[in-house]
Amino acid sequence: MPADSLSGRRILVVEDEMLIALEIVDALEALGCVVVGPTGELDAALQLASDRPLDAAILDITIQGGQVYPVAEQLLARGIPFVLASGYGNWALPDALQDRPRLTKPFTGGELEGVLRSLCGDDR
User: Fold this and answer.
1) pLDDT digit string (tens) for 34-64?
2) Is residue 123 a part of any domain in this protein?
3) Rounded to whole angstroms, what are the CA distances from 36 to 24, 63, 71, 89, 103?
4) How many whole angstroms separate alpha carbon 27 and alpha carbon 49?
5) Residue 44: how many CA atoms within 13 Å on its side-chain side?
6) Is there a domain that residue 107 lies in?
7) Is 17 helix (H, G, I), strand (E, B) or coil?
């Protein structure tokens, strides 16, 4: 799939495992995305989700400072699509987030690209 439709898209990355965060950043940059973050801290993630221009977000569920749910709520309020990236099943999610797109860890670059295209309205 060509990366052109994702080029310039601003993607928030919330991930507290540094190696995973770096892999996500590398994959996003290869697709031409502009990475916002990454951060693995709840307070920083909330700040970025509140005041940065964003096209989409990738959210790890458990991060430093707690669970990412307040960040997800902020993104929902702003109308910004996101995907939850985790090894947890639906049992770990509040009801309001169970229908959100998910990436089950570990995921591939192709899976990441596919979900981003879907979030950004490009289902090629």
Assistant:
1) 999 999 999 999 999 999 999 999 999 999 9
2) no
3) 12, 16, 14, 26, 19
4) 21
5) 14
6) yes
7) coil
